[in-house]
Amino acid sequence: MKNCWFITGTDTDAGKTVATCGLLQAAAQRGWRAAGYKPVASGAEMTAEGLRNRDGLLLQRYSLSGLHYAEINPLTFAEATSPHIVSQAENRPVTAQAMSAGLQHLKTKADWIAVEGAGGWFTPLGEGFLYPEWVIREQLPVILVVGMKLGCINHALLTAEAIQASGQVLAAG
After folding, report:
1. Annotated catalytic sites, by residue?
2. Which residues are listed for Mg(2+) binding in this entry (predicted)?
3. Is residue 119 part of an annotated ligand binding site?
4. Residue 47 marked ligand-binding
5. How many domains would you assign to the chain?
6. pLDDT tens track for 40-91
7. Which of 50, 80, 125, 135 has its CA 20 to 30 A from that of 44?
8. Is 43 flagged in the annotation as binding?
């Protein structure tokens, strides 16, 4: 699928969700059946519907209607910490297979997908498993969101260099 993008940031709270929702809205306005996918999220709260992450809920809001929350954010953790720490603490490992299965499922419903990462480019997801490994496996072009703060030019250049060194296409940043 050529209309599938990975949105990463220079850091946590860099603005990935705002950028992803804007991209989803623009794609929908152009007639695409657009969906957001946040395979892994931590920092969720228990609601009447179950564990929900704020970013995941926003992606659901800007995605095509009828998608269930679990289709957009299948791996949700309550504690607001790095996915590799919380998944180990809860004995719920994050696997490339589970992440890919969710993406493949979304591809049957949408023709334009924005995949939002967690944290920054090198966020660890499990023991010896970093986010870029999955992005490379899925061959997703990368959109880099830069958090506007002191030092952001350095962060942006370092992250862009790391993305390109991994062999991924840096589509925007």
Report:
1. 38
2. 17, 55, 116
3. yes
4. no
5. 1
6. 999 999 999 999 999 999 999 999 999 999 999 999 999 999 999 999 999 9
7. 135
8. no
Angle between helices 131-138 and 96-107 (to 10 degrees): 40
- Answer yes or no: are the C-beta atoms of 137 and 129 closer than 8 Å: no
**What is the tens place of the pLDDT at every residue in 117-166?**
999 999 999 989 999 999 999 999 999 999 999 999 999 999 999 999 99
Look up the CATH number of the domain holding residue 93: 3.40.50.300
Distance, in Å, from the CA atom of 66 to the CA atom of 87, rounded to the nearest integer, reads 28
Please tell me the distance from the alpha carbon of residue 134 to that of residue 98, in angstroms, as a whole number.
11
Phi, psi at residue 37, to the nearest 5°?
-140, 120
